[in-house]
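Second attempt. The first submission of Amidophosphoribosyltransferase had a stray character pasted in from the spreadsheet, which I only caught after the job came back as garbage. Lesson logged: always re-copy from the clean sequence file. Corrected sequence (486 aa) follows.
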Amino acid sequence: MCGIVGTVSAEPVAQLIYDSLGLLQHRGQDSTGIATAEGSVFHQVKSKGQVREAYRTRDMRRLLGTMGLGHVRYATQGKASAEEESQPFYVNAPYGIMLVHNGNLTNVRELREDLFGVDRRHMNTHSDTELLLNVLATELQQVIRGNQLDPDQVFDAVERVHERIEGSYAVIAMIAGYGLLAFRDPNGIRPLVLASRESTLTGEDWIVASESLVPEASGYRKVRDVAPGEAVFITMGGEMTTRQCHPAPRLIPCSFEYVYLARPDSTMNGISVYEARLRLGDALAKTVAQYTPSGAIDVVMPIPDSARPAAMQVAQRLGLEYREGFYKNRYVGRTFIMPGQKERTKSVRQKLNAMPSEFAGKSILIVDDSIVRGTTSREIVEMARQTGAARVTFASAAPPVRYPHVYGINMPTRSELIAHGRTIPEANEALGADYLVYQEVEDMKSAILAGQSTVTDLDMSCFDGRYVSGRVDEEYLRWVEETMSS
Ligand SMILES: O=P(O)(O)OC[C@H]1O[C@H](OP(=O)(O)OP(=O)(O)O)[C@H](O)[C@@H]1O
Ligand SMILES: NC(=O)CC[C@H](N)C(=O)O
Ligand SMILES: [Mg+2]
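This time the job returned cleanly.
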């Protein structure tokens, strides 16, 4: 997933970007970077790890300027540990462009060939973001007319970028001396919001970010979600222009944002993430009641953090007690987005501890938002048993994850997914619970989409194997499996 933010302001922006990245930390923990523009000079600081440890005071002092952008990375291509793949990426022509990207491109093989063979561009990393930046630079170079770059030329370039790249992308880029560009893929898979606040110098200060909680926390007013296919250009003087740059945009956002990725206090595409999670709990309660014998559950327990809203609703709907039996160490980050299975498994035990008094002799319904590799659930079931639970039922507020996610979440290999090629009883054998209940795919969709009409479809490819963009077929999935290790 990754978190991105960009801003044009009347005041220095480094601190605002740093604070925003802290708020987006849940979207990526591998590396982080900030770039600012002081006139037409870029300043940049990048570092491995999380935001709080990444920037020193002397780094912040160097980040001068009133336009800037930032990134927290959760790698989907290349290596999480590769410093040269951390973002932002920079290219010096035309003008000088600095770019951050949330998403994952699916036609990287063709892009790499064309960029080298036709455009004569050298790629120095395995990152798809480097490809994206070079496509943008090539297309911008093609459309430049006259001495001054204007928003129309920038939008023409984005139109051409949409024609060349496939997959998911929410992008923010700075063009040196000109302004800030933001655009979203024509399926609106990854999120991007636009917000502003009054400013004495420029009229308005602008911010674009992955999630709405970012501008809200800094006193900005959300203007709207950037539309699928749309591009926004904000000059360094604060003048904002937008244009739809795709002939047939559709809004098919990633369902996994609502299930797990996004913070619950964000609203995405008009849907409150928290409320969607509550509704996922309502729907799950019905399925739990259907598949478990009556009297089989004494208490409902969430796996902190992401499962709390759903678990609360399950308890309420089933008229059962809600208890917090797992204590979460707040200093350990998210497990699922860590690179490497060894680290993920170790982290579950460091992160969660079961309190025996909540388990001894009880029949527990453990609720999680999703089961992907089964790293968390396997450990949790074992911990519950070790602490004396009489019976363990496990329920997932998302359906079985049976297919790779190719749009920005690092689950590329089918064999690592606990539900791939397995029936639910077979998956449960691997988990070791007494009962295993999954949300139904259609129930998930109705729960997320309920009560609004802006979004009518969702990317649910990791649950149903239907990929909404580009050519994602068996051959491509095999190639990803061969080239990516997680
Ligand atoms: O089946 P798995 O491969 O273990 O993946 C699923 C688990 O990973 C996530 O938790 P994570 O610890 O990343 O974040 P959270 O604290 O927000 O729940 C998610 O909430 C599930 O608990
Ligand atoms: N999760 C993301 O959005 C990743 C962005 C990009 N594909 C990278 O690997 O850096
Ligand atoms: Mg979790």
